[in-house]
Write a structure and sequence with these properties.
Layout lengths: L2 E6 L3 H10 L12 E7 L17 E2 L2 H5 L6 E4 L7 H10 L3 E4 L2 H18 L3 E2 L11 H5 L6 E8 L2 H12 L4 H10 L8 H4 L2 H14 L10 E2 L7 H9 L2 E11 L8 E11 L11 E9 L2 E8 L3 H22 L26 E11 L4 H11 L4 E10 L2 E8 L2 E2 H11 L5 E10 L1
Parallel strand pairs: 1-2, 1-4, 2-3, 4-5, 5-6, 8-10, 10-17
Antiparallel strand pairs: 7-9, 7-11, 9-10, 11-12, 13-15, 13-16, 13-17, 14-15
The structure holds NADP nicotinamide-adenine-dinucleotide phosphate (NAP) and L-homoserine.
Length: 433
């Protein structure tokens, strides 16, 4: 039996996917039964680095592909919100299963897409949407399903991890490394999604929804990107025993007696001996803590053609495996489908309890450190260290690391500090894990 694929997109991931499907030898035998029937692209005249068989022609009419009655599975790899969302919904309406790497569309329209898929009895699988080639979606749905998850902490964006790693190790410039990440096919079509933390926020909302078995509204993820992380902060963090990573965190407040989740993406100082501190370059890692399992970490290449295509094709194989063993039934495997009914309650950012790193620029006058300490004390912010790190001409640079504090109290202290006579600016505020 042959299962037909409609491949939407032949870019970085689509190209990698086609390469695997067109070269099934020495891989899983099921791949021999999977055939690409049509490929949808925007521009047929573009040079492609995938050697396509002569009978496989490119089509710019993607609507026709999703309506092709001979196609069993639509693999959406065009990215973006529209027409991706509409094409997915049309394909579902036509009774086709979906495989996608599009975290942006799932994080925003997952409700609508899953509702349609469950009604039609088709699968929507998205292993490639989070962590590139790392198997993490299926393990969360299945192998870890028995655990009460406490937290999910991840480095889930390859581009920003690549940038931060190169800025730390080789003191390379932000712009130069971002350009490289784009050339390597890691970055999104609009790389601001990577740099501003939006891609990581899409991913943590998907992971949180699976880990905590509830829907997550994308806008509930507090998000900061890496633009504010300077070479100076990387250097000071290093001196204090930390490394800076863009972390995506979903944490249950259950221990605090609340049924709410903390959700955030922020550049964060990690102690150098933390398991995530050594994840460098395009690699991603997701650390999951559950009861009774304890901690488990998923690690691997987080972006790039081959790695991501490996996850895409594993989803295609999963669907084909089910179709083969059970026929085309409307009874979805509850371990592969997704159907939570309620929304997770989210703790507002002002209520978050975290440690902070903050770098002040102040006039270098006697008593300035004492004044900073007083302002923090008045807002109930306890300090772990205050270090005058250097000078910028006549001005002093002071780095403060707090103990665990309520975000609201910390912000209140900063407001007080900004009124001090000696205060000049706050070039950066980062969180500390
Ligand atoms: P890409 O290299 O820009 O490729 C996009 C492909 O889709 C191109 O072949 C393009 O056609 C086609 N396309 C885009 N819009 C179209 C439209 N309106 N109509 C017809 N064809 C259209 O993107 P990518 O990096 O492969 O990413 C694809 C998806 O995978 C995105 O959702 C992305 O977030 C996700 N993803 C990417 C990575 C990665 O490492 N790159 C990793 C994980 C997930 P043309 O070739 O004719 O322009
Ligand atoms: N742009 C994304 C990243 C691709 O850099 O992680 C993988 O999802």
């Amino acid at each position: 039996m042959v299962y037909n694929i409609g491949l939407l997109g032949l870019g970085t991931v689509g190209g990698g996917t086609a390469k695997i499907l067109l070269d099934p030898v020495d891989r899983h035998p099921l791949l021999e039964e999977i055939k690409i029937k049509q490929i949808g692209v925007r521009d047929k005249s573009k040079t492609r680095d995938v050697p396509l068989p002569p009978d496989l022609i490119l089509n710019t009419d993607l609507e026709a592909i999703v309506k092709d009655p001979e196609i069993d599975i639509i693999v959406e790899l065009i990215g973006g919100l529209e027409p991706a969302r509409s094409l997915i919904l049309t394909a579902i309406d036509q009774g086709k299963h979906i495989v996608t790497a599009n975290k942006a569309v799932i994080a925003r329209y997952g409700d609508e897409i899953y509702a349609a898929a469950n009604e039609k009895g088709v699968y929507v699988l998205l292993e490639a949407a989070v962590g590139g080639g790392i198997p993490v979606i299926k393990p969360l749905k299945q192998s870890l399903g028995v655990n009460k998850i406490k937290n999910v902490i991840g480095i889930v964006n390859g581009t920003t991890n690549y940038i931060l790693t190169r800025m730390s190790g080789e003191k390379a410039s932000f712009e130069e490394v971002l350009k490289e990440a784009q050339e390597l096919g890691y970055a999104e079509a609009d790389p601001t999604a990577d740099v501003d933390g939006l891609d990581a926020a899409d991913k943590i909302s998907i992971l949180a929804s699976l880990a905590f078995s509830g829907k997550v509204k994308r806008e509930d993820v507090y998000t900061e990107g890496i633009r504010q992380v300077s070479a100076a902060d990387i250097n000071y963090a290093d001196k204090l025993g930390f490394i800076i990573k863009l972390l995506a965190i979903a944490e249950s407040n259950h221990q605090l007696g609340e049924e709410a989740l903390q959700l955030r993406v922020t550049p964060t100082l990690l102690p150098k001996d933390h398991p995530l501190a050594s994840i460098n370059g395009v690699y991603n890692a997701i650390l999951v803590e559950g009861e009774p399992l304890g901690q488990v970490m998923f690690f691997g290449p987080g972006a790039g053609a081959g790695a991501t295509a490996s996850a895409v094709v594993s989803d295609i194989m999963n669907i084909v495996g089910i179709l083969k063993s059970s026929g085309n039934t409307n009874d979805l495997d509850p371990l592969l489908s997704y159907s939570p009914s309620h929304y997770c309650k989210i703790t507002p950012i002002e209520e978050l309890i975290t440690r902070f790193y903050v770098r002040f620029v102040c006039r270098d006058i006697p008593g300035v450190i004492g004044h900073l300490g007083t302002c923090f004390g008045k807002s109930n912010v306890s300090l772990e260290s205050v270090v005058q790190i250097g000078f910028l001409g006549e001005l002093a640079e002071i780095v403060v690391v707090t103990h665990d504090v309520r975000e609201g109290n910390f912000r209140q202290a900063l407001e007080e500090i900004s009124k001090l006579e000696a205060f000049k600016s706050i070039p950066s505020i980062l969180r500390v894990l």
